[in-house]
Amino acid sequence: MNKQHQFLPTDDFAEISRLWQNSTTNDSLTLNNEAIIAHIATIAPLEHNAAPTVSKRSSLFSPLSERTSFMQTLMAILQNRERFIQSILAKEHLRLMAAALLAISCVSFFVYGFVLGLQHSLLQALSSAVKLPLLFLLTIIITFPTLFIFGSLIGIGRTFMQTVVILLGGTAIISLALVALSPVTLLFGMTTSSYAFFKLLNVGIFVVAWFLGAAFFRAIYAPPVSAGAVLRVHHGDDDETSLQASSVALSEEQADNHTKVQAYFIRFWFLLYGFVAVQISWMLRPFVCSSSLEFQLLRGLRDNVYGDILYSIAHILGLR
Amino acid sequence: MTQTTDTKSTTGRETEFVQLLNDNKARIMRLCKAYTASREDREDLFQEIAVQLWKALPTYRGEAQISTWLYRIALNVALRFSYDTKRRKPTSERISWIEETTSHPEDDHTRERIEQLQRCIAALPEVDRSVMVLYLEECSYKEISEITGLTETNVGVKISRIKDKLLGCMRKDEGGAV
Q1: pLDDT at site B3
Q2: Among the partner residues B127, B142, B151, nearest to A90 by beta-carbon distance
Q3: Which residue, A45, A183, A201, is CA-closest to A111?
Q4: How confident is the model at residue B157, as a pLDDT?
Q5: C-alpha to C-alpha distances, A154 to A34, A146, A239, A265, nearest whole angstrom
Q6: Does A20 touch chain B (CB under 8 A)?
Q7: Is residue A52 over pLDDT 70?
Q8: Does any CB of chain B come closer than 8 Å to the CB of residue A55?
Q9: Domains of chain B as residue ranges with CATH
Q10: What are phi and psi of A82, to 5 degrees?
Q11: CA-CA distance, A58 to A65, in Å (whole number)?
């Protein structure tokens, strides 16, 4: 138990360690052994404690147990981000988490797609409900190789499954943000007659959701932990304090530069993700439809998505 | 005859458990102090940890160090205890299990610094506090990682940051060097 720390404390911290150890010592405490024995004797015999309070595998901040489920993952992603992140970093239950996140995303996109299409007709609602999950699945499939291979090359160091889970986590955040905004979409879909306004409103909603997903993704995919890897190299080193201190300082500087490259890459990749998503959404359109038009499953490839957005803005401003 | 042997064996285990508790009482008490504000709460928490250690004793199979097993349970109980503080009813009839000699051998200044350190540790966020307590208890990164579920890399980064935070707090409180 009485081991040396891997990263030897500075003199100041050695003083803190000493204070801590001296704050309570075995000599300053007296146990009432008789009272303890009398009490534990009333507790069920050891052999019959079928359900121990703490299992061997339990860990304080690793959130998702072997029973990781749809709801657990959902609650972890919404309320306990730290637990969720620690599960990913600890590489525990990644397959289950991936399945749960995929299910969360598909259900949420289905719900929002349905709300989106209701502005036109029930048929359009069903069509959009199916097409919206498809849009994000295709985007993930197309952009994943870039993320994983480039990420590995620049030393982000996430495994294949970690990358899948983090990407699905970001996508799930986008889908949940859309569900959260679905009442707004429903209200305007039912009350506004301007197709151009409704389309732009949804562009805005998707951009907000995309930003939330990007922030989540960035926080988990490459948090600034590179310096920690250096600290770990010194695991078990007991001597050469000054050498350790200088190498840690140098490595932190290198880690900073490294982190900048990673941050640029993540920005680039999420822009790519958005760019691809926009193109696929153009291929799969319509998701919303003017009430003057008949229902269409697909409109085919023509025009350009960015031209269409500009056209909508011009239409609202009365320029066309 | 069998019954007599069983009784003896059970009593033996209880005695062994009390010995384990005696060997580790300071470690447990230091941890209790990081998670409680009053003496009563501290004693309650110590008692709760002791009971849970006793209940969980069969789960210890010697695969991990006894200290790792002990800290994992103790921290788990302490965290739950601090969550439940508001809902917990005061213990009406409690026979004290532990008595702490209040007079430290150190001088007044050291005593003040210890109290200051405990205040600074208590002010840390939950995860940071747990990591720092284990670090100050001289657990290795691997042990801290096993107990908390954090990766070793993350433990290293956290410790580096928490140390700065703790030193800053100590200096701020004292208005000078630690």
Answers
A1: 43
A2: B151
A3: A183
A4: 85
A5: 62, 12, 32, 9
A6: yes
A7: no
A8: yes
A9: 10-85 (1.10.1740.10), 107-178 (1.10.10)
A10: -60, -45
A11: 8
